[in-house]
Every structure is written in C-alpha cells, then in structure tokens.
C-alpha cells in the first residue's frame, strides 16, 4: 500500500522512543499523515498500545523504567495483532543495549526491525564498523540484511546510502535519499516510526515497507534541493513529507528487486 492509503487511514502510532528525537518524530508522523502518541510510563504502556494501530520501540536513551514499558507495550501489541517495530539505536555501543535488545527479541514477536548496518550486524553477532548511533556503509548490506531476516525471523529494513528491505525470501533495495539525512539527528528514528505507520496498512508487509522507505527517500530529495544546510533542511523535510505525492514517489523511486541466481 502507498502514501495515499496511509493518509486515508491516519494510523495512531504509540512511540516508546528516545528523548533526542521525540518531538521530531511526532511532527514527522503528523506531516506524513499519521498520528503520534509518545508515552513510556510502565503504568500505561499496555493500555496505550491497546488503543493504537502500531507500536514503535526505540532504545536510543534507555532507562530501566523504559525497558519495562517496552515489554508491556510490545506484549500488548502481539496480543492485539498490531505491528510492533524495533529500532535498536546504538546497540553496538554498550552491553546494556545489547542485553536489552536480546531480551526484547526473546519476549516480543517483532513485525520488523529498522536500523543501520552496524545495528543490524550487532543483533546477529556480526562485526561491523560503528560509532555511537552511527554506522559505516561499507560492506555487503544485502547479504547482511538477508542473514538477519533469516536468523531473527522478521522483516529487516537496513538503511544507509543504500536501503535494503527483506523478509529473508524477497529482497528489495532502495537508493533514494540524501547524505543530508545523516546531518540531522533523528532521521533514522523517524523512519522507523514511518515504517510502523505503513505496516498498519493492508497488504504485503515487504511492499508496505518498500513504500515507506521510498516515500521517505523521495521526500528528502525534494527537501534538499533548496536547503542551505542541516538547519533549513529540517523544516523543509517536514514540509515535503506532508506534500510528497504518490506520482512523485512513482517517478523518482529507485527500487530494485534483488534476484539471486542460486
Ligand atoms: N549516504 C546516504 N545517502 C543517501 N541517504 C542516506 C545516506 N545515509 C543514510 N541515508 C538515509 O537516511 C535515512 C536514515 O538512515 P540511517 O542514517 O541509516 O539511519 P540512522 O540515523 O538510524 O543511522 C534513511 O532514509 C537512509 O536511506
Ligand atoms: C544522537 C542520539 N543519541 C541517543 S539517541 C540519538 C538519536 C539517534 O537518531 P538516529 O538514529 O535517527 O540518527
Ligand atoms: Mg538510528
């Protein structure tokens, strides 16, 4: 399904996200046509997930209380059959992040995981160059994403210069976007919430994730054209998320299916 269906549905996304990107994520979800609610209190996590169409779990600035809320919201999402997406921000950086992701992956059936290459590699114990919340783009990202999808049994959206969407069987690459996205904090985190919103739509989840990634990438290309730098790119990107059309996505999307000859 497409940006048009997303705007028609306007799904409510419960975000258990980090303090750096919370406001940007809420505004970005509004811009693209979804509704955000940000909440990390364990006392209401299950109830909030229960009234939502999708749940996003982002480990960017973790506390023990957040982790408790993430388990409660994720379990309720599974019980209610709504999508739940993990963004393993900076998981390579500390043992606490690794243990938290391991526990979340054991307890919750994630619909998808969206992360950069370093984060996806860490989840399957592969070495990859990463620093804090950032990752190198060097290496075979298609092979990495497919290995992660198979090992973790979920949809993987691996992003960077080239984005990869795979369920381990069907794989697509998307080469839209702009390096300016790496100069503004929270663009990966917002994409994870946007992916969650697209996964609430009817239809195939691989196709829906490809729509999310390509719509986001095309919107960023339209925004960067008249941006002087990261400061002006930021509001322009929110604007183009709200104005990008299905026609523009279809015209500019650089999406390819990966065909294996083995
Ligand atoms: N070098 C690049 N060129 C174009 N787009 C990029 C580049 N690096 C990242 N992106 C885009 O930035 C967005 C966030 O991805 P990424 O930077 O991998 O996430 P994170 O911020 O979690 O590390 C995605 O839409 C991705 O396609
Ligand atoms: C800088 C930073 N530190 C902890 S969370 C965070 C935001 C990361 O955002 P993104 O993964 O979208 O770059
Ligand atoms: Mg990130």
UniProtKB/TrEMBL annotation:
ATP binds at residues 114, 159. One of its GO terms (molecular function) is hydroxyethylthiazole kinase activity. GO terms for biological process: thiamine biosynthetic process; thiamine diphosphate biosynthetic process. Its cofactor is Mg(2+). Pathway: Cofactor biosynthesis; thiamine diphosphate biosynthesis; 4-methyl-5-(2-phosphoethyl)-thiazole from 5-(2-hydroxyethyl)-4-methylthiazole: step 1/1. It catalyses: 5-(2-hydroxyethyl)-4-methylthiazole + ATP = 4-methyl-5-(2-phosphooxyethyl)-thiazole + ADP + H(+). The keyword Nucleotide-binding applies. Pfam families: HK. SUPFAM superfamilies: Ribokinase-like. Belongs to the Thz kinase family. Catalyzes the phosphorylation of the hydroxyl group of 4-methyl-5-beta-hydroxyethylthiazole (THZ). NCBIfam families: PRK09355.1, thiM. This is Hydroxyethylthiazole kinase. It comes from Pontibacillus halophilus JSM 076056 = DSM 19796.
């Amino acid at each position: 399904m497409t940006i048009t269906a997303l705007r028609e549905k306007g799904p409510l996304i419960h975000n258990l996200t980090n303090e750096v990107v919370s406001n940007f994520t809420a505004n970005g979800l509004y811009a693209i046509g979804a509704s955000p609610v940000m909440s990390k209190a364990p006392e209401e996590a299950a109830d909030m997930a229960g009234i939502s169409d999708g749940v996003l779990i982002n480990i960017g600035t973790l506390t023990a209380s957040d982790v408790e809320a993430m388990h409660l919201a994720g379990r309720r999402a599974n019980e209610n059959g709504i999508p739940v997406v993990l963004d393993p921000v900076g998981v390579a950086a500390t043992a606490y992040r690794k243990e938290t992701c391991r526990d979340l992956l054991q307890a919750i059936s994630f619909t998808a995981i969206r992360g950069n290459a370093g984060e996806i590699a860490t989840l399957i114990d592969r070495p990859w160059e990463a620093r804090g919340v950032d990752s190198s783009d060097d290496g075979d990202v298609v092979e990495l994403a497919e290995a992660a999808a198979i090992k973790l049994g979920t949809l993987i959206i691996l992003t960077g210069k080239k984005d990869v969407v795979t369920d381990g069987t069907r794989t697509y690459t998307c080469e839209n976007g702009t390096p300016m996205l790496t100069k503004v904090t929270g663009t990966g985190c917002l994409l994870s919430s946007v992916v969650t919103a697209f996964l609430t739509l009817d239809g195939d989840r691989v196709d829906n994730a490809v729509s999310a990634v390509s719509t986001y990438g095309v919107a960023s290309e339209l925004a960067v054209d008249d941006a002087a730098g990261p400061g002006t790119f930021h509001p322009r990107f929110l604007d183009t998320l709200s104005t990008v059309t299905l026609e523009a996505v279809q015209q500019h999307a650089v999406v390819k299916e990966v065909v294996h000859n083995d």
